[in-house]
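COURSE: Structural Biology Practicum
ASSIGNMENT: Worksheet 4, Part C
STUDENT ID: 0417
INSTRUCTIONS: Below are two proteins. For each, the amino acid sequence is given first, followed by its structure token string. Answer the questions at the end about the second protein only.

PROTEIN I
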Amino acid sequence: MTDTLVLVIAVLLMVAGLGGVIIPMVPGIPLILGVIVAYGWYEGFNVITISFIAMMAGITLLSVIVDYLSTTLGAKYSGSTRAGVWGAFIGTFAGLFFLPPLGLLIGPWVGAMLGEYISVNDFNKAVKAGFGTVIGLFSGLFFNLLLGIIMVVSFLFRVI
């Protein structure tokens, strides 16, 4: 393969990784890291150095932490119980399968509300927990998308 073709494939896979930040079940940021490591291996770690890969791995770890904390903090801030958080998680996947792409917005909210309502049997608290969980979920998604873009742009600056 030519170097140009390998670079084009790498960029396409990274774009898929950025899509994976938005679409659950696709490991977006880890996919981007994997492509960076694979490209570094392909070119002999001359341009994509081990220190650059370590920095990108740090960003990947940060994205995992943000992913977990954003939903949890959004739920906790709104007074949600663990059932509300689990409801949002399950609702995300259900929404993805039953109402794509709109389900990505509706699923977590409905799931968090249902989980919270089952747990505390208070409709107003369930609605508040649903909104808090979704706000946390989407703030984390936005931040992870930003981290993914930083990773892709950093890669492109190195290789082009």
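PROTEIN II
(use this one for the questions)
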Amino acid sequence: MISPPEDSSVPAEIRAGIEADPWTRALGIQILALGRGFCRVGLTVQPHMVNFQGYPHGGVIFSLADTAFGAACNSHGKTAVALNMTISFLTAVPAGSRLVAEAREIKQGRRAGFYQVSVTSGKGALVAQVHCVAHTVPPAAAPATE
């Protein structure tokens, strides 16, 4: 569950959709805080989420960051999709580590939004930084009537 007061300005249907996301649920990602242009999510790295070297798979870290970004850029109530995400992996952490991703809106224009996501370990180590650009999708044109 998302804890108030951060979520009070996010439309209830958007909040519910974010919480029900199948990929987020499959990975065990928890929504820790949500507000307009902001989201914090957490994940404990399970043994099946590590690569052959024993560290969290980059795809798991990316998915955690993407979840935070997706929630933050859609928190305004308009449909937004990722246009670009660039990730830098900075520190390896062992299986069992708690990871937290925090997405923050840097600037929101009419069609493009710019976001920064930081992924940290439970011990405070910076695990990854992600620069993101979101594209706001215009509402579909109403079908023509006769």
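ANSWER KEY EXCERPT:
Q1: The radius of gyration is 16 Å.
Q2: Residues 1-5 have pLDDT under 50 and may be disordered.
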